[in-house]
Design a protein that fits this description.
CATH topology: Translation Initiation Factor IF3
CATH class: Alpha Beta
Helix content: 40-55%
Structural class: alpha+beta
Order of helices and strands: HEHEHEE
Number of domains: 1
Number of helices: 3
CATH architecture: 2-Layer Sandwich
Strand content: 15-25%
Largest sheet: 4 strands, mixed
Length: 98
């Protein structure tokens, strides 16, 4: 599922006051992190993730691993913070604009 520009804008507005739910440490993407990511996306649909690492390529690699493993969409990335969205198929909480 690809998000339209208006949907991304809407989700960025909803994500603005949120605090990071998942903090990715120096060990990178582990099975425990992936399990916590699944749980957070099922509960909230829209979450912020704080990525560790000084290198931009390292953060991008970690983010792509998280996106591939979870099936989430990257709404926005600014510095060390990424906003991820995945619709809950059973109980959707966020109604996206068309």
């Amino acid at each position: 599922m690809s998000l339209t520009p208006s949907q991304r804008r809407y989700l960025r507005g909803l994500a603005h006051p949120l605090k990071p739910v998942l903090l990715l440490g120096s060990k990178g993407v582990t099975q425990a992190v992936l399990a916590e990511l699944e749980h957070a996306l099922d509960d909230h649909e829209l979450i912020k993730v704080k990525l560790a690492g000084e290198d931009r390529e390292e953060r991008a690699s970690s983010l792509s691993q998280l996106l591939d493993a979870s099936g989430a969409e990257n709404v926005q990335t600014i510095g060390h913070i990424a906003v991820l969205y995945r619709r809950n198929a059973e109980q959707p909480r966020i109604a996206l604009p068309r």
